[in-house]
Amino acid sequence: MPRFSANLSMLFQEHPFLERFAAAARAGFCAVEFQFPYDWPAGDVARAAREAGVDVVLFNFPAGDWAGGERGLGCLPGREAEFRAGVARAIDYARALGCPRINCLAGLAPSGETAEHLAETLIDNLRHAADACAPHGIAVLLEAINTRDVPGFFVDRSTRAAELVAAAGRGNLFIQYDLYHAQVMEGDLANTLARLLPQIGHIQFADNPGRGEPGSGEINFPWLFAELDRLGYTGWVGAEYRPRGADTESGLGWLRA
Ligand SMILES: O=C(O)C(=O)[C@@H](O)CO
Ligand SMILES: [Mg+2]
What we know:
With about 260 residues, the chain is of the alpha/beta class. Helices cover about 40% and strands about 15% of the residues. The termini are close together. Keywords: Isomerase, Pyruvate.
């Protein structure tokens, strides 16, 4: 079976953030990931992970004014300085946490800009991020997000993310393949995984519809997890779903199985 990490922005929300690390360890996870650690000092986050005995395997670059509706800075012309400051901040956190990969959110396509200009901006920003991360042994990821949940997201298909990553042309640049977003937008998960595998630096999952745990929807997760082994994928697979029950533990049947 693949190596699973618990996404602490979605799982274990019945606990305060810094207590979710220990909750994940008690549930059997040896690795965690999360969206944004920036509300907590890096030292506090690192201590929580160390004391729980879990590795931190992924988090996101700062993504703009999230509460105000922004969903990333990667493709936004005129925001390059803010993106770059976010890259530096994320590297500081990654070094404190020993985290080897950081995910870039492309953001919502602003009106009045051509797709070509947005793609150029994103590619320049990805190159900057990859070059800044490379000396620290950190990989940079680009994730496609479905436009049913996030209307207007600029990179909405894994095949497009793969094209942009290839165009940026950096050895430490990969795609983050989220099975939930891919199922909403593209389907054909197994064939797409096989085709994009060399470019995949991290996988996440939730069932569809509803973004719940495996077994709550239409995706055949036992078969797909076995397929990841058959394909030779050795990276992390992040559980990034909204538990349907009152607590996370009651939805972990897929992990026990
Ligand atoms: O929504 C997702 O999927 C993610 O992976 C997040 O990190 C982006 O908000
Ligand atoms: Mg995801």
